Amino acid sequence: MKRIIALFAIIMLIQNKGTTQEIDTSLSASENIYVLRLQRSYSLGDGLNIRSSVGKVSFNQSLQTLYVVNSPNNFNTTNSGFSINRARLTMKGNLFDRKLTMVMRTNFVSNYQSATSGSRSFNSQLEEAFIQYSSNPKHTFNIGLRADYIDSRELRIEGEDLSFITRSVVSTSFDAVFDYGIRYIGKYKLGSTQMLKTYLSVTTGEGRASLQKNYGGLKYGIRVDYLPFGEFSHGGEAQMEDFEREPKPKLILGAVCSYNNGASSASGSNGGRYLYGDYLGGNILLPDYTKFVIDYSLKYRGFYSLGSFVATSATVPKSITGAYALSGKFNPYTITSTNQVDSSVRSNLNLGTGFSIQAGYLLKSNWGLGVRYSILNSNVYSAAFAGYDRNYSFVVSRYLAGNDLKIQAQFDYSQVKKGLQSPNNTANYGGQIMFCVNL
């Protein structure tokens, strides 16, 4: 019992942040001496770390609790609810002076649950599982399942490090997020300060559904990032808020192109959702999906701005004559016009353009303010992903320990697309409050 009491007292002592100190305690019991040594060096977000002479393994967990309220039709009706936005457990290990890294992450909330049934579905809990090798700081390779580099700038930032509770509708409409494949990262200095980063990606194009089956061909992508003023301080490129309060302007300009040879979902995130075939129903035929992205991120003395422009297009095989039901049965189309078949296939893809821009400022008191404007322009034959085509958001954040402990309140106004408006349905008003902690 004495040992338990002493151990509890020591745990209470190690709450001080940012210090490193050994604590020794000796307990006498039946002439035996027990010595316990702890390091008081834990910071919120550090996780549990196990170190050895050849490497390190860390375990981190994050939890985001959310309350949402929305009111369509000018507050005639109101809906609200509580939910868990993210509940993640991450394991990361590295060996040989961080040259070899293994990452595995699960999210126990099925935010990305498949709309399919039977075998045409995917594991909604496993988000990342990959192995990475860095021969030197300039060249890195990884293989496995992870969030890809060839999505918009917003997607490059972890959900725990966003300055808004949710990503923009442009990101949610066009970003495929997770996929399985092999990737390369290159970092090249241009002169004394300028830097060029290149990302090459060859993946399945099926998202996490590829862990069961790859229905189409492969997806090829490239991202090129140019940093004219050098790298951001302390990894600031991977966070939205300017916690480092960059003393000099930091800017990153990016361009992305990806080509999915045989897309079987709306944006490449849920492979196997839509399958088509030829006249005999013996061959699976799929449309090709192309995406272009231009984005940027700017930070300076607590101010940040981030923006993305996305454009997508598709090519539909002319020999498609029918579609497979979720049960696997092939159903020939009753329509015979090639243009009608083409339009039917495109109606299951997110096609069009999107633009999102946001900006915010972090006060020295660790209060953050941000505004965002997003617009979607869908192709006339595209899937109905742009029912709300203009979106305005405002967020207030209180950072108690950076992104590791924060409270956020977000307010949204979403305008119904003009062709879908009615006297009683013109916009949606929404509000969200989220508490986030990373251990």
Task: Write up what this structure looks like.
By secondary structure, the chain is mostly beta strands. The chain has 2 domains: 1-42, no CATH class; 83-363 and 370-387, Porin (Beta Barrel). It contains 3 helices and 23 strands. The chain has helices spanning 2-13, 169-174, 338-346, and strands spanning 22-29, 32-39, 48-51, 55-72, 79-95, 100-107, 126-136, 139-147, 178-190, 194-203, 219-227, 250-260, 275-277, 284-285, 288-300, 303-315, 322-324, 330-332, 352-362, 367-378, 388-399, 405-416, 427-438. A 16-stranded antiparallel β-barrel has the order 4-5-6-7-8-9-10-11-12-15-16-19-20-21-22-23. The chain has a 4-stranded antiparallel sheet with strand order 14-13-17-18, with no helix packed on it. A two-stranded antiparallel ribbon has the order 1-2. It starts with a helix and ends with a strand.
